[in-house]
Amino acid sequence: MRVGPSQDEIRRQNLGALLRHVHLHGATTRAELTATLGLNRSTIGALTADLAAAGLVSEGTPRETGRAGRPSLVVRPESDRVYAYAYSIEVDRLRAARVGLGGAVLDRRELDRPRGLSAAEAAPLLAGAVKEMRGPVPAGAVCVGAGVAVCGMVRRDDGLVRLGPTTGWVDEPIGAALGAELGLDLPVTVGNVADVAAFAEYARGAAAGCDNVIYLYGDVGVGAGIIAGGRRLTGHGGYGGEVGHMVVARDGAPCECGNRGCWETEIGEHGLLRAAGRHDARGRDALLGVFDAADRGDACAQTAVRQAGDWLGFGVANLVNIFNPEMVIFGGTMRDLYLAAAAQVRSRLNSNGLPACVEHVRLRTPKLGEDAPLIGAAELAFDRLLADPLDAG
Q: Is there a common fold for 82-196+372-387 and 208-366?
């Protein structure tokens, strides 16, 4: 005989649902929470009281109201008091941030990352950035964990980076290395940068309200975060979304993954710089230099940008035909390429995409900008708290 959830389990689920709503949507009145969560006023009052007693939310009167009568109390996340550390490990830089409950970036640091830096070498640098950020933390503030966004194939179970072709990482335990350096006795959760950025844009950015989203992220390589039916699509083991390694040209250029003709060899850093005749250049500044030269009329740069834009549209058309998203978001260097070659992207998408899939799809850049990976990494750390607010310590 199946036994239903206990009263305590129901209460904890409701606490999580209320805190998650306030975390994602910000200050919300009790009346709005009552309507959204489908609970009665007295239950909402009891839940907010529990969360306030735990220091997770605060309650107060609205700052302004045009209505007569007693206004409904507003519930706000305690962003300054409850926070997580977030990290983004990119090919040429390391970024760290302190992100408050509610998604506010409270503090941040950025460091250059020499290419070839191992996880064991990167962890002390990131930990040093955290130590710098601890100074301004208010007394009594609580850290609930840390999240890491990294370019590479991340094993879901333990955060091991199985393969990061563009970073040179193979079986790198960045989560364990960083946890040891931080010494916080708190979980460090690792995710793929495109996947976590996709969730951030879906939860509170450009794709809010869309249940089917593709977020394309470019650094040296290209990856995708995919939201399908409101769920993150990561595949068995967590390795899904490696769209940069779709083979699009059988006899194409060699890829750092060991294959030939991968999509990222045409639209990634190496392919675009090669097409522009800048064989010895590398890095985002070099890519921006190509886009700038194209804007100023450099014929070689214009040809390279048009060619890369056409390849970008080719791959996007395939993804749109397969996943039928409502929105495609271009992040990282894919944002720069899309903005420089939007006409080529849309033209190729319209030519190769199935009309029923293309007619509604919107192409966008990230609302959260470069903060999307950091905010997404913080969501990894907040997830445990939001699942059970009173037992996440």
A: yes
Q: Across-strand partners of 332?
A: 218
Are the C-beta atoms of residues 252 and 258 closer than 8 Å to each other? no
The CATH class given to the 7-62 domain equals mainly alpha
Q: What is the 3-state secondary structure (H, E, C) of 212-276?
A: CEEEEEECCCEEEEEEECCEECCCHHHCCCCHHHCECCCCCCECCCCCECECHHHHCHHHHHHHC
Instruction: Find the radius of gyration of the CA atoms of the chain.
Output: 23
Closest-CA residue to 157 (of 263, 239, 226, 59): 239
Alpha-carbon distance of 247 to 256, in angstroms, equals: 13
Residue 357: other Cβ atoms inside 10 A: 17
Q: How far apart are alpha carbons 239 and 127 in whole angstroms?
A: 27
Residue with tokens 């919107």: 362
Q: What residue ranges do the domains of the chain occupy?
A: 7-62, 82-196+372-387, 208-366
As to burial, measured by CB atoms within 10 angstroms (0-12 exposed, 13-18 middle, 19+ buried), residue 230 is: exposed
Check: CB of residue 77 under 8 Å from CB of residue 378. no
Contact 122, 89 (CB under 8 A): yes
Fold of the domain spanning 208-366:
Nucleotidyltransferase; domain 5 (3.30.420)
- The tens digit of pLDDT for each residue in 248-303 reads 998 899 998 889 999 999 999 999 999 999 988 888 889 999 999 999 999 999 99
User: Domain 82-196+372-387 - what CATH class?
Assistant: alpha beta
